[in-house]
Amino acid sequence: MIHGSSVPVESASWQNLLASSITDPRVLLTRLQLDSSLLEGALAADREFALRVPEPYLQRMQPGDPNDPLLRQVLPLGEELNEQPGYVADPLGEQQSNTRPGIIHKYHGRLLLVVTAGCAINCRYCFRRHFPYADNNLSTAEWEQALDYIRQDSSINEVIYSGGDPLAANDRRLAWLTRQIADIPHIKRLRVHTRLPVVIPQRVTDELIDALCGTRLPVTMVLHCNHANEVDAQMLGAIARLRRANITLLNQAVLLRGVNDRLEAQIALSEALGDNGVLPYYLHLLDHVRGASHFHCSDSEGQQLIGQLLTRLPGYLVPRLVKEVAGELGKVPIHVDLVNP
Ligand SMILES: *Cc1c(COP(=O)(O)O)cnc(C)c1O
Ligand code: SF4
Fold first, then answer.
1. Rg for the chain (alpha carbons), in Å?
2. Which one of 76, 88, 174, 175 counts the least CB within 10 Å of its CB?
3. 129 Cα–ligand 2 center, Å
4. Cβ(195) to ligand 2 under 6 A?
5. Helix or strand or coil: residue 248?
6. Using one digit for the tens of pLDDT, what is the confidence trace for 215-261?
7. Statement: residue 133 has pLDDT above 80
8. In what residue span(s) does the Radical SAM core domain sit (predicted)?
9. Which atom belonging to ligand 1 lies closest to the Cα atom of 222?
10. In the chain, which ranges are E strands?
């Protein structure tokens, strides 16, 4: 059942699942039969960045396990409030690149569109936890300005829907936007960066696929899945629908202490996705965002891990280790040597 309603999850609409996400730390702890000693810290950290976890994601967690790798990604912890040197509100300087509403244009040829401010889930490590989202819900006039910006710069050949989570927008908005973008001759491809097919697989409907795939533009979707336990039957159903629509599927993950920082976890993630047609793209080193320092893994831990992975998996199942550095021309690749585990 969805929290606070009598609709079973399997037959709920994605809108319903999105609206009925769990946002009360008390409810989360009770549902997972977790110790109430976690509550005080959870309530304090929740005031800084709200808890938000959709029901289909919660159902993949192991009750009674405070170290569950999915729970760790969403549970607010008191330690988030400890200031750590070097961990800041806007580690990527995006508030400067975000000079026009709705647009982040940092790299050559690719432009990121903030389609909607909202997300279906609040990931504790998110570099956008302090992002001024409220300023990024565009009016019609602002949408026209953003589209004009793309029309006027013929060096841009790829538009990336981002957010927030762009699939939190409704299909009508996505269909309209995609048609506008497909009408711009220099745009050759469309990309969607989203975690929604992972956390609420019911989001992947025929209407969504029509909205994204109804134009001349080839579509690539970059999912954000961090752990093999996130890959359940519902998510595989969503992946199968996306593949039938000829959407190229990739995955980006974030290297997170206590979630996926072990070789076995990375192997399981790559295999669970790769065997179902989703190839790994990037493994991101954590951005040093205030409140996320407990997830930190050093560059050399990342290098060690990917160096080992390269000796265990085919090359196409090994993600590229990258980090975002403010002011750089693209994601910065981290050099990796082979390591015998
Ligand atoms: C990550 C990112 C992109 C896409 O980079 P790719 O290396 O092409 O995946 C584009 N714009 C911004 C602002 C980004 O952060
Ligand atoms: S879904 Fe993505 S953008 Fe949203 S909170 Fe999680 S990491 Fe951040």
1. 20
2. 88
3. 8
4. yes
5. strand
6. 999 999 999 999 999 999 999 999 999 999 999 999 999 999 999 99
7. no
8. 105-328
9. 9
10. 103-107, 110-114, 158-162, 189-194, 219-223, 248-254, 279-284, 320-323, 332-333
Q: Which ligand is nearest to the CA of 94?
A: 1
Place of tokens 């290098």: 303
Provide the CATH topology of domain 94-333.
TIM Barrel (3.20.20)
Centroid of ligand 1 to alpha carbon of 282 (angstroms):
11
- Residue 110 beta carbon below 6 angstroms from any ligand 1 atom: yes
Q: Measure 117 CA to ligand 2 centroid, in angstroms.
A: 10
144 CA → ligand 1 middle, Å: 23
Q: How far apart are CA 167 and CA 337, in angstroms?
A: 37
Cα–Cα nearest to 287, from 121, 89, 51: 89
Rounded CA gap, 224 and 269, in Å?
11
Count of CB atoms situated within 10 Å of the CB of 53 = 25
Break the chain into its structural domains and give their ranges. Answer: 14-81, 94-333
Type of residue at 216: R
Residue 273, C-beta contacts closer than 8 angstroms, at least 6 positions apart? 223, 225, 231, 251, 279, 280
Q: How many CA atoms lie within 13 A of 243 on its CB side?
A: 14
Atom of ligand 1 nearest to the CA of 281: 9
Q: What is the dihedral of CA 198, 107, 176, 215, to 10 degrees?
A: -90
Determine whether the shortest distance from the Cβ of 287 to ligand 2 is under 6 A.
no
User: What's the distance, CA 44 to chain centroid?
Assistant: 24
Of the pLDDT bands very low, low, confident and very high (cuts 50, 70, 90), residue 135 is: low
Task: Give the global pTM.
Answer: 0.96
Strand order in the sheet with 219-223: 103-107, 110-114, 158-162, 189-194, 219-223, 248-254, 279-284, 320-323, 332-333
Give 145-162 pLDDT, tens digit per residue.
999 999 999 999 999 999
